[in-house]
Amino acid sequence: MTFFSFQKFKIKQSSSAMKVGTDALLLGASAPLSLSKSFEQEGIEILDIGAGTGVLSLMMAQRIPSAHITAIEIDQAAAEECDYNFQNSPFAERLSCIHSSLDNFLRTRTRTRAGTESHFSSKSDFDSAQSDNSRNFDLIICNPPFFPGSQAEGSRKKARDSHSLPAAELLEGVNQLLATDGQFSLIIPFQDEKRIIEIAEGLDLFPMEILRVKGRKDSKIVRSILHFKRGMQKLSETEMYIEVEKRHEYSDEYLQLIEDFLLIEKKSL
After folding, report:
1. What is the fold of 3-268?
2. What is the pLDDT along the chain (269 residues), one digit of tens a residue?
3. Whole-prediction pTM value?
4. What dihedral angle (degrees, nearest 10) is formed by the CA atoms of 91, 51, 16, 123?
5. Which residues contact 27 (CB under 8 A, 6 or more apart)?
6. How many Cα atoms occupy the beta-carbon half-sphere of 212 within 13 Å?
């Protein structure tokens, strides 16, 4: 088995097409927790769209002790691995993974709300869907597929090819699932930032924070981490870089961001 070890949990990633990567770490560690609810009270509902191994869900479970997190994953092997990671974590009681596309998840919620019969792979999936249908989500997170025309094959291509989940479909789904005062956070290639914001604003989702990321101090911006809420927002824009000059020579800002998650000895960097 292939595992990636964090401070408080491990990620099995033998079957999942997409392994633990920097994008998920950046999003999971940087998502601003500016929800209207107090994190001390129970009932914070989070949705992880395209969960893969479940790393984002696990990071949010660590950060928000009161959160209940539903993860959906379209690839069956990845969904099974995600569920394994959840069940073998300290946060198992607050996590559930459903093998489903975003479209099917939306339709399932609609059918369940209408009182019609739905089919689930297990009783736990049914119970999760029932509880999720009581209201929309306070926080939605997504590390979406964004490699158009990828040459990868099979499950890896499905995980990375943007045709599996077009931006407009993702944002429309978020619009239907997000609570009135909820927050949506995702990471995308920098070149897609303007297009994503334009689509989102057409749905009354406006960025409140944008973190633009460089690989190294003197390199170009490669990622944008966007955080949306409904209605016009006062926008905060910042930049950071991951490495200083040499590979694995990490910036202080990046180390501070991930210090609660990764097993890194600062003195060796």
Report:
1. Rossmann fold (3.40.50)
2. 688 888 999 999 887 767 788 999 999 998 876 555 555 555 789 999 999 999 999 999 999 998 999 999 999 999 999 999 999 999 999 999 999 999 999 998 877 655 543 333 443 444 444 444 457 999 999 998 754 544 444 554 555 454 467 899 999 999 999 999 999 999 999 999 999 999 999 999 999 999 999 999 889 999 999 999 999 999 999 999 999 888 878 999 999 999 999 876 543 33
3. 0.84
4. 60
5. 56, 141, 143, 185, 186, 187, 225
6. 14
